[in-house]
Recover the amino acids of this structure.
């Protein structure tokens, strides 16, 4: 049961108010945890855990909503852009179709309506389905505080299990992607066909490859990428290199051994399709 | 000639099946349907009583140990809290959950024998305060060695033996002896509504009595448990079943425990107390399907004739006996599968482990033992080089054959027919699927570039492995052996000015009890279905019709109601329709005040059972089933997926065809879940994946198209020929799927759940 009585929730209407609240709270050493759709948070609270007693509910800040297409291959996701927004965006379909695949496999419709990409990133779950896609597409996280903005590559955003680059007075305001060239591919191996948490996720854009659920954070397969970039196509070597970055463990959902096998199988399948002409929609 | 129906045969059925029946065999509106779909139905957590407290349970966090101390945080404000421990249970009450034995305490005294065992009960008017308080109570233990693995356990909770014929001689004559060992995992019932009750001091005029409202299958089991716990006579205990969101056996015995807890708190507080479990608590604390390990040794002639069957069967009982002896009994009696052998030996044991007690779950031991039997049949077929279907045909029960307990199967034996029908329906479905695939393949050629790459890479990496598997099974309806005689169930009918009211203790838990009983009575009285009302399942009003379990509610209780209706009809004299019935009813009511006919179970004369030697007619009748599973395995993820499922079940007579088909589809899917997805992960004696996120049941997208066909071989002692339907459908799917996996991969799994991790290990 959610013991909501002793939770503090601030609901700013503007981004400026939000940033000021974050700054003040951080200065008083009582940081506010930003909250978007709440789809991860409510599960945690319902289980009797309380990651924080103080929340900043961003849902009312209209400015943070939506997906925008920029230039020829750019996409800008507002901090409140939901999975449904991705599914409904023509630009996402055209430029980063694997994000639509991923979004459709996140929870059910209710979760897709509330869950956000930015929340998915900041929550820091290694099993996030959207994050590998964004990471493989070289996405940039836009952080803003009352003092200004900075941009951090998503691939450098995580410092460890659920540890992120964000300072307590900062907010993710957007996620920017300049979609690179190349074949896109998304594979989710979950516990069932829907409403499933991933056991292994793989996302690829050209030679860029990211995995979920195989390390403390979503990871890029740098060693393998370098090998493929240099023209390497040997399957066994590629599989070996993938497992340098993908270092799964046993947990409640699966085993390390299983995840290693699946990673190897996915790499083989990816490699097989790599030099075929990119798909079009 | 028995009539058949397919799920798609509605129109055909209306013409061919109803015959002269006006209500039975027709798909009437569900009795409680409107209130459920409009949201008017009130579940236990919707109810709020004046001045009500909420109750919670302090549970053990070690699998075995001595309780050294229970301590409340002195810094915490305990105002308004009520506490109960074992010392609050006083003579003549007893700290024992009355079930088959009385070994399980309501509250631990000085020792705990499993994780999540109740130690203290706490109540408060505010739920949040209650949760905060519960977190401030600590238990100190002296840990003891825990036996967590039933395969190495030595303490036996119950043992039974079934013997028939000369086993040694059979094995001496055998051309080949085939041996195999099979394992099945625990399974959670996963009713959507968790366990919950409200206890209220007082019962009717008795201020010192107790009333419990709650979600449950068996109100009279709860009455008995409360009588023993509180030392009260039956008149002072009242139990009312509220609208119940599913049971599947999970609300057979456990509500007795929960009702006892709430009653203890309510009596101490002098106020109503509500206890409703959160999902996590429900998962870690309540009963599951017994895990099993079963070894078969079969003496075979080269031509495929079974000479002798030797089975060793062990179940994981958990820490207390609960219903394990009767689960074991049903498992053992069904352990040969629907096959004859002149020599049979079945040794069954329930092992004690320091884990939460396992208990009733749809099928009640038969799914475990018939999983082993049917996977073993495929092994025998492989070792003898005989077609699996031919091997089965050679040994399947026919009318006149004798079962392991020596029961001669007089009538209603449909083992061969369900097989024939399943093969026919499967052939049709396969043809249709091939045709549809042809079409999609053509479409796919165009769209392939779009979709192909994202579909788990299977297309890029070679096609999935495909296979088809078969399982045949049977399921005895009603209580085992002399159980029905002991139950002496009662049910009846009261005349009202608008029709009749059913007085029956059977519960509606989603399966259609109310509808089906009303149909039987309407048909028997010759009045319209909408003139039948059913009394609320309140033990102050309805008689003890026995528990709503064991596929007995239609065949056994329905038959009692039918007899009551026939008696009432005789009392009313001649009438031709609902209108003239009402006239006569009103006249009779004027003359007598109330008119009620209560009937009791009558043992059919030809049923004989010896509970000491385990010989005789184990069940009045059996339902018969055949399953064919088509599966494919993704070569990347090793996930086996069922692509089509055929289920043909003989249930004697479908009182309400749509509800019966729903039972078959639901039981089949629950069987598929057990076979492929549902894995209770235990750590240190506690369920580790106790959430809906991590305990995986199939979703709609994991559900294959299911072809259902009902076969109707009537049973003479069932109402309109009906036998049981609730459980039989879950006995076959696991074996059919594991046999299909073997067909697809050539590898033996011999265990469920067949998770991708297990399939991977078999393949690489």
């Amino acid at each position: 049961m959610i013991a909501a009585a002793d939770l503090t929730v601030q609901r700013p209407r503007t981004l400026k108010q939000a940033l000021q609240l974050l700054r003040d709270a951080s200065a008083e050493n009582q940081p506010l945890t930003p909250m978007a759709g709440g789809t991860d948070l409510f599960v945690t609270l319902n289980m009797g855990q309380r990651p924080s007693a103080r929340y900043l509910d961003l849902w009312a800040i209209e400015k943070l909503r939506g997906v925008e297409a920029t230039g020829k291959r750019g996409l800008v996701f507002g901090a409140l852009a939901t999975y449904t927004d991705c599914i409904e965006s023509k630009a996402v379909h055209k430029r980063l179709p694997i994000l639509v695949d991923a979004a459709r496999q996140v929870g059910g419709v209710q979760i897709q309506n509330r869950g956000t990409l930015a929340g998915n990133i900041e929550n820091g779950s290694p099993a996030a389905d959207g994050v590998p896609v964004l990471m493989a597409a070289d996405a940039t996280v836009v952080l803003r505080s009352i003092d200004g903005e900075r941009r951090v590559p998503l691939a450098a955003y995580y410092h460890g299990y659920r540890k992120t680059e964000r300072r307590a007075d900062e907010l993710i305001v957007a996620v920017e992607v300049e979609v690179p060239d190349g074949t896109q591919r998304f594979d989710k191996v979950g516990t069932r066909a829907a409403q499933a948490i991933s056991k292994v996720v793989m996302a690829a854009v050209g030679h860029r490859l990211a995995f979920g659920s195989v390390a403390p954070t979503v990871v890029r397969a740098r060693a393998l990428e370098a090998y493929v970039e240099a023209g390497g196509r040997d399957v066994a070597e590629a599989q070996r290199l993938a497992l340098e970055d993908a270092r799964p463990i046993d947990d409640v959902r699966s085993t390390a051994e299983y995840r290693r096998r699946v990673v190897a199988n996915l790499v083989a399948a990816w490699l097989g399709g790599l030099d075929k002409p990119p798909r079009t929609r | 000639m028995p009539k058949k129906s397919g799920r798609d045969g509605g129109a055909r059925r209306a013409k061919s099946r109803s015959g002269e029946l006006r209500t039975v065999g027709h798909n009437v509106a569900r009795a409680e349907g409107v209130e459920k779909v409009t949201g008017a139905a009130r579940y236990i957590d919707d109810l709020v009583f004046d001045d009500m407290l909420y109750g919670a349970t302090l549970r053990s966090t070690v699998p075995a140990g001595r309780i050294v101390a229970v301590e409340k945080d002195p810094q915490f404000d305990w105002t308004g809290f009520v506490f109960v421990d074992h010392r609050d249970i006083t003579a003549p009450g007893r700290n024992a959950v009355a079930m088959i034995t009385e070994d399980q305490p309501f509250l631990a005294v000085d020792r705990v024998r499993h994780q999540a065992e109740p130690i203290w009960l706490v109540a408060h008017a505010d739920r949040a305060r209650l949760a905060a308080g519960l977190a401030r109570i600590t238990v100190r233990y002296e840990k003891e060695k825990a036996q967590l693995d039933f395969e190495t356990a030595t303490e036996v909770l119950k043992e039974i033996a079934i013997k028939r014929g000369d086993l040694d001689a059979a094995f001496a004559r055998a051309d080949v002896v085939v041996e195999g060992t099979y394992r099945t995992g625990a399974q959670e019932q996963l009713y959507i509504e968790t366990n919950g009750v409200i206890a209220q001091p007082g019962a009717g005029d008795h201020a010192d009595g107790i009333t419990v409202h709650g979600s449950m299958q068996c109100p009279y089991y709860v009455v008995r448990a409360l009588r023993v716990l509180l030392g009260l006579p039956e008149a002072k205990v009242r139990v009312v079943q509220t609208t119940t969101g599913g049971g599947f056996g999970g609300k057979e015995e456990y509500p007795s425990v929960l009702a006892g807890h709430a009653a203890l708190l309510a009596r101490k507080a002098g106020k109503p107390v509500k206890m409703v479990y959160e999902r996590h608590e429900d998962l870690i604390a309540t009963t599951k399907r017994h895990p099993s390990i079963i070894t078969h040794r079969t003496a075979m002639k080269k031509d495929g004739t079974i000479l002798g069957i030797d089975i060793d069967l062990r179940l994981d009982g958990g820490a207390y006996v609960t219903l394990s002896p009767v689960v074991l009994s049903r498992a053992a009696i069904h352990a040969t599968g629907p096959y004859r052998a002149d020599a049979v030996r079945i040794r069954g044991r329930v092992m004690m482990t320091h884990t939460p007690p396992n208990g009733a779950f749809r099928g009640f031991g038969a799914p475990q033992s018939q999983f082993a039997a049917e996977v073993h049949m495929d092994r025998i077929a492989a070792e003898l080089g005989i077609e699996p279907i031919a091997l089965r045909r050679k040994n399947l029960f026919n009318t006149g054959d004798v079962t392991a307990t020596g029961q001669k199967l007089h009538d209603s034996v449909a083992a061969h027919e369900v097989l024939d029908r399943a093969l026919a329906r499967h052939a049709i479905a396969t043809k249709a699927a091939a045709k549809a695939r042809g079409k999609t393949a053509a479409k796919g050629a165009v769209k392939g570039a779009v979709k192909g790459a994202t579909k788990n890479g299977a297309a890029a990496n070679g096609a999935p492995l495909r296979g088809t598997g078969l399982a045949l099974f049977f399921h005895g309806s009603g209580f085992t052996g002399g159980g029905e005689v002991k139950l002496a169930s009662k049910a009846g009918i009261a005349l009202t000015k608008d029709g009749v009211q059913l007085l029956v203790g059977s519960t509606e838990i989603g399966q259609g009890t109310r509808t089906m009983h009303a149909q039987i009575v309407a048909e028997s009285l010759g009045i319209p279905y909408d003139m039948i009302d059913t009394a609320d399942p309140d033990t102050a009003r309805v008689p003890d019709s026995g528990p709503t379990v064991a596929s007995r509610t239609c065949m056994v209780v329905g038959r009692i109601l039918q007899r009551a209706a026939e008696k009432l009809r005789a009392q009313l004299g001649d009438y031709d329709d609902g209108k003239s019935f009402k006239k006569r009813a009103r006249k009779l009511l004027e003359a007598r005040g109330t008119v009620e006919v209560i009937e009791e179970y009558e043992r059919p004369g030809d049923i004989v059972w010896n509970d000491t030697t385990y010989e005789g007619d184990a069940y009045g009748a059996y339902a018969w089933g055949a399953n064919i599973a088509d599966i494919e395995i993704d070569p990347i993820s090793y996930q086996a997926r069922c692509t089509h499922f055929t289920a043909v079940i003989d249930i004697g007579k479908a009182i309400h065809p749509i509800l019966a088909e729903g039972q078959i589809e639901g039981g089949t899917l629950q069987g598929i879940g057990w076979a492929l997805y549902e894995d209770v992960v235990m750590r240190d004696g506690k369920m580790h994946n106790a959430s809906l996120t991590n305990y995986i049941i199939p979703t709609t997208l994991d559900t294959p198209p299911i072809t259902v066909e009902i076969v109707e071989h009537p049973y003479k002692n069932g109402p309109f020929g009906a036998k049981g339907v609730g459980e039989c459908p879950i006995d076959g799917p696991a074996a059919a799927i594991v046999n299909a996996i073997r067909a697809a991969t050539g590898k033996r799994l011999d265990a469920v759940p067949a998770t991708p991790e297990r399939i991977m290990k078999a393949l690489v």
Observations:
- Chain B has four domains: 22-43+480-610, 45-146+190-285, 156-187+289-389, 418-444+454-478+620-763.
- The domain at 45-146+190-285 of chain B is CATH 3.30.365.10 (Aldehyde Oxidoreductase; domain 4).
